[in-house]
Specification:
3-stranded antiparallel β-sheet, alpha+beta, 11 strands, 3 helices
C-alpha cells in the first residue's frame, strides 16, 4: 500500500483511486494522485498535515469547514490545541502566498471555521496506465449551485 495525502494520513490501496483530481487555482495545481502542490509548475513542499488540510478545505470549498471537523479528519480525533490548527493554517497560507489579512484563498470565518474561496477549475485525470480518455477540465460549482447529473449512453468496445 502507498500512503496518500488524505485527511488524517490514512492509507488506501492503489486500486481505490479511480481518478485523480487536479484542482487549479490562481497559479497553483493541486494534484491528489501525485500528492503534490505546484506553483507555476514548481513543487511546493508541504508537511503531511498541511497537505491533508488543503485537501479537506479544497474538496469542501462549497461550505465552511468547522474546527471540530478539521480536528476529527486531520488529527483523527486526538486532542490538539487550537494553536496546532493555527500553525497549520499559517503554514498553508504561507505556501499559497495568502495571509490572514487578504484571505484571498483561505478565509477565516470567525467562531465557525475556514473556507477555501479561490476560484477553482477541477480536472479529472485517469491514473497512469489506464485506458481512460484524456484529462477533462470542469469548473468548480459556484457556492449555492444546485448539483446536477448527466446520464451518458454506454458504448461497448468492439460492438
Amino acid at each position: 500500500m502507498k500512503e496518500y495525502g488524505i485527511p488524517g494520513g490514512r492509507s488506501r490501496p492503489d486500486s481505490a483511486i479511480l481518478h485523480a483530481m487536479i484542482y487549479r487555482f490562481e497559479n497553483f495545481a493541486f494534484d491528489t494522485l501525485k500528492i503534490e502542490l505546484l506553483r507555476d509548475g514548481v513543487a511546493v513542499p508541504l508537511e503531511r498535515q498541511v497537505f491533508a488540510l488543503l485537501s479537506l478545505l479544497i474538496e469542501n470549498s462549497d461550505r465552511v469547514v468547522c474546527k471540530d471537523e478539521i480536528f476529527e479528519k486531520i488529527w483523527e480525533g486526538r486532542f490538539v490545541s487550537d494553536s496546532a490548527l493555527a500553525s497549520r493554517i499559517k503554514s498553508l497560507r504561507a505556501a499559497l502566498g495568502d495571509n490572514g489579512k487578504s484571505q484571498k484563498i483561505i478565509r477565516t470565518i470567525h467562531g465557525q471555521g475556514f473556507r477555501f474561496v479561490a476560484e477553482t477549475r477541477v480536472q479529472f485525470k485517469a491514473p497512469v496506465g489506464s485506458a481512460a480518455s484524456a484529462p477533462v477540465d470542469h469548473a468548480a460549482p459556484s457556492p449555492g449551485a444546485r448539483p446536477s447529473i448527466a446520464i451518458l449512453p454506454l458504448r461497448l468496445i468492439g460492438a
